[in-house]
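Notes from the 1:1 (GR / supervisor)

We went over the backlog. Supervisor wanted to see one worked example end to end before approving the batch request, so GR pasted a single chain during the call. The sequence is below; no edits were made to it. Supervisor asked that the structure be written out right there so they could see what the output format looks like.
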Amino acid sequence: MLDQLRVIWAYCRLRWDLAARDEGGSVVEKVILTAIFAGLAIAAGAIIVTKVTNKAQSLNLNSP
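Structure output shown during the call:
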């Protein structure tokens, strides 16, 4: 029983150490996803500005 607990403890420590070292990949993924979402937000904003500008330019402000 004691040997089994030692094996489980060693495995848990190994997994903990691997998870602590693997944090760098997680940060890179977060940065990439943030950049993608920021690009999508900028593109959506540009589309909205273009549509509003075109609609504003098509209005006839000269009343008879």
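Supervisor's comment: The radius of gyration is 28 Å.
Batch request approved.
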